[in-house]
Predict the 3D structure of the following.
Amino acid sequence: MPHRIAVIPGDGIGPEVIAQAVKVIQALGGVELHELPWGADHYLATGQTVPANGYDLLRSFDAILIGALGDPRVPDNRHARDILLGTRFELDLYVNYRPVRLLDARLCPLKDRNPGDVDFVVLRENTEGLYVGIGGRFKAGTVDEIAVQEEINTYKGVHRIIRHAFEVARTRTRRAVCMADKSNAMQEGHALWQRVFREVRADYTDVSTRHLYIDALAMMLVQDPRQFDVIVTNNLFGDIITDIGGALQGGLGMAASANLHPGRTSMFEPVHGSAPPLAGRDVANPIGAILSVALMLEALGRVDDAQRIERAVESAVRDDAVTGDIGGRLGTAAAGDAIRTRLA
Ligand code: NAD
Ligand code: IPM
Ligand code: MN
């Protein structure tokens, strides 16, 4: 039975990079793709972000591949909130798994760094934190305006992401988890992270542990990324440090991610956004989207095919058959072809 995949190309460079990711999946076969038009154009034309029963529709697929959402014509980002964040929340995709792996020394902006020096994963809590949209504005638009945006940390939410981080660490050679929070300043919400981290690590005595405040971690990511293996953190901090992770790999165009609820329909997407200035110019790097397909196939149990994609990407990077952002001369489509034709 082929896997049934929902494909949401989305906005800006989303459709261009997703077209390349689709080429790669189709070359591997074993999937049935269903494209959904959700995005800014669809919202502006119909007033609809996600159709009625849209999340149920998504749950009926084996996986979801999504490009990027964000369009200057929708300044409040309403459609992205419903389509991207809404899917994370409604499908309860509590793990945002973002691997950071340098594929070639010359892509790293840090001097004298080799692939082995940048090889860690970020587990970002994906269903709560500052993203829940609880809050409001009082006296909006006046000099007395008050804006409240609550950060939610629940025992259940913190526990399941930290436990997942330990499970991931057990599959890795170094078996080291670093939990990052801001418990020195956020003495209520992040005290919960501290408590749960202490509690969970007692069950994983084979995994080494460390705690860092998020500001120090951001500095160390740039100074010496080699020290990191598995990083677990909250929704907002995870968002920010995975853009640093993108840069360490050569740029945001390289970074892949998975929004997971183990055992359920999960969603796969490049870390980057819709990059409006690059849209329609055949310049966007499709590697983040293509490596997100590798994460998807791995989650669907097609580990060999996932590795075939990774090897093809590594080979294209080695041969400089890549886009301009990482020093190549190819357009998006040609860079996608370079990877597709290297699938062995
Ligand atoms: P962005 O990720 O779109 O772009 C940031 C920088 O990275 C830009 O310089 C861009 O040119 C570069 N870049 C990004 N992807 C690239 C690629 N594939 N190849 C080459 N260069 C690439 O972030 P932004 O500019 O802050 O946001 C633009 C829009 O995207 C906003 O509406 C934002 O909300 C949205 N966004 C969406 C997602 C998502 O859907 N997952 C993620 C991030 C941002
Ligand atoms: C990401 C993006 C999203 C996020 C935006 C578009 C809401 O930056 O997936 O990293 O903050 O989660
Ligand atoms: Mn982000």
